[in-house]
Amino acid sequence: MSRIAGGFSIALLTAALLAGTSTPALAQSEQPQAEASETDQARMIADLQRQIDELKAMVTTLQAAQTAAAPAASPAPVTQAAPMLAQGTPGAAPAATQPGIVQQPAQQVAVATPPRSKQWYEKLRLRGYTQMRLNEIVSGDASAPAGESRLRTIGDSGVRADNNFNFRRIRLILQGDLNDYVSIYFQPDFAAAVSNQSVGERREGTVSLRDMYADVYPTGDKSIRIRLGQSKVPFGWENLQSSSNRLALDRTDGINSALPGERDLGIVAYYTPAQVQEIWDRLSADGQKLFGNYGAFGVGVFNGQGINRTETNNSLMKVAMATWPFELDGIGLDGQVFELGGAVLRNRVNPEVRTGGVSPVAYKDNRVGLHAILYPQPFGLQGEWNWGTGPEFDPATGRIEERPLSGGYVQAMVKVDESPIGRIYPFARWQYYRGGFKGAVNAPRLETEELELGLEVLLNSALELTATYGWASRKEADERRFGQAEGQLLRVQAQWNY
Fold first, then answer.
1. Taking the C-alpha atoms of 328, 329, 334 and 335 in order, what is their torsion angle to the nearest 10 degrees?
2. Residue 21 covered by a domain
3. Which of 127, 229, 403, 409 could form a disulfide with 392 if both were Cys (CB 3.0 to 4.6 A apart)?
4. Residues 350 and 284 in one domain
5. Cα torsion for 336, 339, 340, 343, to the nearest 10°?
6. Exposure of 213 by Cβ count < 10 A (0-12 exposed, 13-18 middle, 19+ buried)?
């Protein structure tokens, strides 16, 4: 409004001046200059002076009124009426050059640009973890003569005489959603070991493929997924649980002997109802150690020879699993969850033989397993057991035979959320197994019984420490060695997550 009033006052002043000067100009043009008297000139000058004084008074009044009415906020946009009037007058200067006329800059109109969709590689994320261990055989059969069992484990080749530090796992994981219907997961391990590189010398720090699969979501949500590629086989709760999330340092012989390496190449479908996913999400937020989302129900087919092994027969390994968490609030155990489930595995496998290659015979490899978990709040229990038939070397006949097997474990644990050093998980585990081990040459028989006490300390989200002390009685996984090795093991692990 202030600029409108200002423009109006200037226009009014200009018009008044033009009106006031028109009369004397006309009088001057009609009367010859020679006949004008000094009286007429004085009268005209006085009249002009009067008109000028009146116009000045009008301008002063308008300016005072304009100042009193001006708002505190920024003025409204100026109308272009006065400049347009000036531009329309013949011979007038452009509005930008006229005194007192302010040229407004042209308004810039923002053009809405549609957001750019992310490329597939922009949707991926990289994470991982590393485990460094110290294994010490405190007492017992660290070494033994040929033909007698030494204290060894199938879960960690670092348990041996004359050993100190070693990397157990160095994992990098690349994963992400390519779109609403497909995601990928890629995990190599940089801490694998190979032998026979230099007259039987063992070499560590090599790369091994662990996971490479794509998840397809037919319905667009993630309640149903079809997994294609090399991934974990859904048999055994602790087999599915990530090593970065497990309390004990190694999986038990009885459960892991079903699937050494836990993985195979194939296709598997998982289904997770919404109510189950809600319970698992709540448990995960509470710091519980879950087995990972492998579905409440799973069914799949795989090659059956094991991780990174060439398929050698025309049969497929069939597997099915079911697990269900039950909330116990209704019986007075508020916040506590009890999970119960089982799995079935049917397969035929060709074990590696001492003479080279694999056995020409495909042996039955069938199992059924049960699992139960009472999540700690703060005290909890966990257990698994499986029974079946599998390949096992018979020293009496010198051949691999189909023999019965059974084994499992029971674990007690406590979750302490608040302590001076961070969240801690004390635990105790007893395991037992009698049966063949198809993951070793000639499928030797294992006879394992072990009690282990441990403590995991989660110092922060990036670093955790685990220490265990165990009393073990084991038969070594070598068909050429006999008897039981006994001893005590001290083991310490540092794990950092990134």
1. 60
2. yes
3. 403
4. yes
5. -170
6. buried
344 shares its domain with 460: yes
In a domain, 386, yes or no: yes
For 403, half-sphere exposure in the C-beta direction (CA atoms, 13 angstrom radius) is 19
Pairing of β 203-216 and β 224-232: antiparallel
Q: Beta 399-414 vs 423-436: how paired, if at all?
A: antiparallel
Q: Which helix (H) or strand (E) holds 453?
A: strand 445-460
Cβ atoms of 478 and 457 within 8 Å: the answer is no
The span from the CA of 193 to the CA of 203, in Å, is: 6
Residue pair 413/426 in contact by the 8 Å Cβ criterion: yes
* 215 is a domain residue: yes
pLDDT tens by residue, 95-131: 444 444 445 555 555 566 777 778 878 889 999 999 9
The residue range of the domain holding 19 is 2-97
Q: Which residues pair with 265 in a beta bridge?
A: 230
Q: Taking the model in full, what pTM does it have?
A: 0.76
Same domain assignment for residues 60 and 151 = no
Task: Report the distance separating Cα 418 and Cα 425, nearest Å.
Answer: 11
Whether the Cβ atoms of residue 384 and residue 237 lie closer than 8 Å to each other: yes
Q: Which of 341, 241, 345, 338 is nearest to 300 (CA)?
A: 345
Q: Which of 222, 254, 244, 283 is nearest to 408 (CA)?
A: 254
* Whether 88 and 126 share a structural domain: no
CATH of the domain at 166: 2.40.160.10
Check: CB of residue 413 under 8 Å from CB of residue 248: no
